[in-house]
Amino acid sequence: MNYKSTILALFFLIGGMASSKAQDIPKKDVPDAVKTVFIKAYPKATDIDWKMKGSNYEAKFDLGKVDHKATYNALGKTISVEKDIPNSQLPAAIAKSIRIKYPKGRIDDVDWINTGGKITYKIDIEGTPDVNVWYSADGKFIKEVAD
């Protein structure tokens, strides 16, 4: 491969990686249907940032001092809602499972997630190594991803 082809390939690779992540967008580019549903659900939201995630619109915002995230399709249908919760609000069955599975780990952050009425928890665990784990509301382990 010659020099120009290498540079061109690198350019497309970097561009593809950048486009695969969520893209920040200005509020004016969010469809009115999405903004209307969001404002009705969260009239007291502050520090609102909008992103495109694939074809969906994601709002990251604060309610009081709590971080939230809500994802909508272009028609304003809610895909999921997520919020930080204190470690103390983690269901006991999940906390027990984590203590057993990760005895040297420390729970750093807990997110409560509602996707179409299905509740899950994402827990960031610091330890060796750091991991993110997901559990169902009834305490069943779903998956683990290295952090």
UniProtKB/TrEMBL annotation:
Residues 1-22 form the signal peptide. It comes from the Bacteria. The keyword Isomerase does not apply. Keywords: Signal. Residues 56-143 form the Putative beta-lactamase-inhibitor-like PepSY-like domain. The keyword Protease does not apply. This is Putative beta-lactamase-inhibitor-like PepSY-like domain-containing protein. It comes from Pedobacter cryoconitis.
